[in-house]
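[Solved] Which block belongs to which protein?

Original post:
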Amino acid sequence: MLNFRNRELCGVLLAVFVGFATPLSAQTDSSVDAVCTGAFVTEPAAGNPIPLRDPAPGESAELWENVGMGGCSVRNVVDPTLTPVLPETGKATGAAVIVAPGGGFLMLAVQHEGYDVAQWLAQKGIAAFVLKYRTRATPVDPKGYQGMTAELMADINSKKPILATPEALQDAMAAVRLVRSRSEEWSVDADRVGFVGFSAGAITALGVGLQADDSSRPDFIAPIYPPMEPQKVPAYAPPMFLAIALDDPLFAIKSDLGLINAWRQAGIPLEVHLYERGGHGFGMSGKTAAAALWIDQFYVWMKDSGFLAKAESVVQANAKGYSVANTTIGEYLAHPATKAILLKHLPMIANSDQINLMSSQTLVGLQMYTPDQITAQVLDAIQADLNALPAPTP
């Protein structure tokens, strides 16, 4: 049996577990989520991470690291956030997926198990949200951090049940509630909110999927390379998509894959993809051609399961033939698709306390009162987004 307390072996297994090698560079980032490119760590030029709780007291000690092929990672997270990655206006399917990166609850592989996944989903018309959940405190010193990873591997080797940390689970539940509470703003159907997670994020996906509180439970889950031990599956558990490589050294080798039968015996819809090779932590990096297909298969499963059905409100909105000259503010607000366009270009109107007084006005009519805000360029951009709405089906 492998001895996970061996420090040299630990370094190798850590790379397998969280999908990264020795950091190339690192910096602390106390303000916003970071995106790593090349050998550098930089703050994003765009993005709007939304806090999920009040900031922790004191200065943030988040450590962002460029980790080579695995992209970007962050550890010592104490202030959880949710970052929307939305599809282009008119392409939204109404489905939403929260993305939880893995990292053993010690760090988050936010690039290839987070941002890359979210961007792929958004290109397919799915509103994606990267969850930066709280992690355990780790030493900044690399040797001290390696010692913590050795303990993590020993726990995995002990065959003890592996559960999400209370903090990660709380953050996941808060993320589900947030997406549903702002579903109209993001052109999302509140009944089609999913949750995909990787490794530790997959453990979190299972945890939030088995919550009794339906307001915090997603409508479908997708654990990618999760622990495969059987669990008690209640009747309210959501449909599940699962993908794992059979040569996964942490969760598949020597496993009887009991999680699959647990879901089947509960009579809950389930789709499973078992890859001959791929190891642990393949994420969007692939590792094998077959394992790289997991996200395409996840997309098709969502489509087959009805989670990607075009929102009726989008079709209705386009059928009305909206225009900046003839459509009233009240009509824009009547459908999530057109309301989202108004929020995108004129948030001061869409969020105004006086919105009811403007409900009978058109945008062209309002332009004479606020020419500096409702410019010709803004009106042209709004009309272009309205024209891009999908044509109604016969």
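(Second protein starts here: sequence line, then its structure tokens.)
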Amino acid sequence: MAGRPARGYRHATDAPVPGLTVDTMASQLHELGQALDRVLADGDRIAESLVAMDSHPANRLLADADLTGLTARRWAEATAAISSAWEHYGRFREVVAQANEARGRAERARRRPADADLAELTELLYGPVAGGPDGDPGGQRRLTLADLIARIDADRDAALTVLGSVQAAWAETVPPLDTVDRRLTAAAGMAESVGAGRNRIAALRHEVDRARESVITDPLSARVTDQVPALAERLDTLTGELARLAAVRDGFSARLAALEGVLADVEAAEAAARQSYSTVLELIAASGLATPDDRGSAQLRARIDHLRSLRNTASWEAVAAQQASVDRLAGEILTAARLSLRSVTGLLDRRAELRGRLSAYQAKAARFGLAEDRELSELAATASAELYTAPCDLGSATRALNRYREAVAARTTELHSDGDR
């Protein structure tokens, strides 16, 4: 980690002192060799960590991106740290190579290592071997091998902190955007199929693209997670509307067939009303009926034809806007046509009802032995003449029938009274 001294390192003042006995010098060489082995192990660790840093997914993506804002500033710091780490690692390798050479020379002189080789190895392992930081132009501070390792670790950790933050930001923001993007693509296909919503799709696409650009160029500042719920809500609304239009499209043939069926019923009712009207004019006096016509069916047919033309141009939004009103109009026109037919046939039905009641009253009079009653016979004949004369005056016939009914009721009541006495 940053600032951690290399294992087994001592300060330069604690280094072995040259000019000693053979045994002491051999022991010193052994100790320096162990220290160098530890440095070599650290070198392997550092090399692996630097390669991993360069291979970090965020590293490659940031290097190719046109960064802005906070991410640009942090990436500039990270790239400086990466360059510094590799620069110090380069010097580290040079020093280690020199130390290896010094140890090799000392080891080849098996009986008595040269004082110069031991001194060089000691200096390389424990003494200053590199220039200080950029802020030390006078060279007042020099770096030891341990300092180099600590500096490399610190630079690497600083770079990895930035890379990790960027990767975490992308992991948080990119998947929600990808989800909205996939749904938006599907909604665009729906919009094309129903011929509606294209402008709203384009507006949403623009906002998603802007959000994605902010994630790519400045992921550390992007607040896409705050935007996604609103985008998703608008997309939900639009998708629902497009789904309803698709349902209108898919069900249009059946809906049109149903309207055609209503139109056929209206035309049948209108035709029956016209035919019955001619009969009423012959059989019923002063009917007061308006002449039946086919304006209702003509109006409904025009609306159905207009719907069909909208279907032919794939204007499903316009079809949906008018379909409900056409359905209501069809129901109203059919109801009006049936009422018109009933108003015409109702007069004939009324005459038939009055004839039936006359027959019933006559049957009642006969049961009471009043069939030969002169007054009742005259009243019955008058009512019959009204009902069976064409054209029939239903008002006059109703009054004549009521007089006969009242007279029959009065006579039968008298007969009950006489029977009781």
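Accepted answer:
You had them paired correctly. Confirming on the second one: The chain has four domains: 12-166, 168-250, 252-346, 351-420.
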